[in-house]
């Protein structure tokens, strides 16, 4: 009798649970980001549901160190539409989950003139909501104009190269 080869089912590919929920592209234009820090964020049930639906606005947000705790302020998480009565306040301050040493380091850095903490992006990591904070120094108006000028020059150079190089098919 012939032996059959047993086939073991291959393990299905695991879906990555790391999903970007929102980002703050304006922050990289308005600020020079010098350091990036990952922090957990304390949320209520309706907030995490609304976050996973992608209903977050980080544009006007900032973080503050108050009484030895880090707080995320002015970040708008839209109310969950399917909640009955226990919905959350969209602009409420949210506590950031950081180690004491990280909070001390950030407090010392922010105490310097011209530095602030801005949220750069919000995402999930292993099913937990995280926010990436940037230790940022505000750019001046002429620095922003310089960035725009460089971007336009690069775009024009790319267009000139595309016009000059014949397409090979």
CATH fold name: Small Protein B, Chain: A
**How much beta, percentage-wise?**
25-35%
- In DSSP terms (H or I, runs of 4 or more residues), the helix count works out at 4
The largest sheet, given as strand count, sense and whether it forms a barrel, is: 7 strands, antiparallel
Strands, count: 9
For the CA atoms, what is the radius of gyration? Answer: 23 Å
Number of domains: 1
| Order of adjacent strands in the largest pleated sheet | 1-8-9-2-7-5-4
The fourth-level CATH homologous superfamily is Small protein B
Estimate the mean pLDDT confidence.
82
- Give the N-to-C terminal Cα separation: 58 Å
Overall description:
With 169 residues, the protein is α+β, with helices and mostly antiparallel strands. The chain has a single domain (20-139), classed as Beta Barrel (Small Protein B, Chain: A). The protein has 4 helices and 9 strands; from the N terminus they run E-H-E-H-E-E-E-E-E-H-E-E-H. The protein has a 7-stranded antiparallel sheet. The chain has a two-stranded antiparallel sheet with strand order 3-6. A hairpin with a 2-residue loop joins strand 4 (62-66) and strand 5 (69-73). The N and C termini lie far apart (58 Å). The model has no long low-confidence stretch (mean pLDDT 82).
